[in-house]
Amino acid sequence: MLSAGNAVQAAGVTEPQQFCKSLAHRLAHVNEARCNAAQLEVGAHSVQKRPLLVRDFPQTETTGGEPPRVLMVGAIHGDELAAVELVFDWMHRLDTTKERSVYWRVAPLVNPDGLFARNPTRVNAAGVDLNRNFPAPDAATQALKYWITKTGRDPHRYPGVAPASEPETRWLVEQIAKFQPDAIISVHAPYGVLDYDGPPEAPHKVGYLRLQPIGTYPGSLGDYAGLSLGLPVVTLELPQSTRIPTKEESSRMWADLGDWLNHHLPAHRHTAPAQTASAAINDEKRDFLEAAGEPDVPIDSSWAECIFTSPASASRWPTQTTAGSSLFGTCPVTSGSVRADTGAVASVPWIRAM
Length: 354
Ligand SMILES: [Zn+2]
Hints:
alpha+beta, Aminopeptidase, 2 domains, 5-stranded antiparallel beta sheet, 10 helices, binds zinc ion
């Protein structure tokens, strides 16, 4: 439960700020200021309790209808550092552009545990290749079979015991279900190609990347969102895992993506306005509080990962887990101290700004 990534946080430092500090140490081209400027919010947590961060960039242009939505994700594979850096570069572009006709949701780092491993890993902390863990219809029967027969049980491509067994995968599936994107852009490395799944027609090039469909693997995001949900999934495979494209390359890729999106996204949607990432997070907090019988706790209060002294007190709060003889769970804190009425809390290893 307690892991190296869960440093004790000083009161007043938010979880994204704490995370940005660590990320700046790991990445060459994303410093703490750039990361903080991205104003990321915590959507969920990884196996090792690192935050899965997300940011919405709603449309700025009002054209008299609901704008199309695009979900961009980076580093489903934790060892593809250049993917995270490129997505940060593009978030900066989104932030500084005055005209946005698309509603963007961006999750720059879906596999933080892999990225923060001593030597970054493709798989998550449970040894699962998240890009083989999506709940596509064929994944339950084919993903493990494919892994055994086609990859020779390659440990870098293990699909997990069952589809969506991993919290990172479940979170992304939930993002797709709630946000209902019209297209998904997933940034990877290091194969140096452009891949595509879903309805026609694919972009022929994105910057220096040329279309070269590499097939669909059972349980991949392309299999799930592209083939089973029928969404266009553009996969950008940067040529190197650790070298970020130059400014010029990045600009050309961004321009090509914009062109393709302009021609292939619906001009308007007929559905309800998108719920913002923060509103969705607040909804989850509200549900959580109601389930805990604490509807009056302000939803903007901080949260702590707590150790409970008895099973009875732990049972008041959802998401408890056991580690050895200790019971862990989440509980609200006010002004940096655990709420007195939780009573049973023994200690607070780290603050969780949920
Ligand atoms: Zn990858």
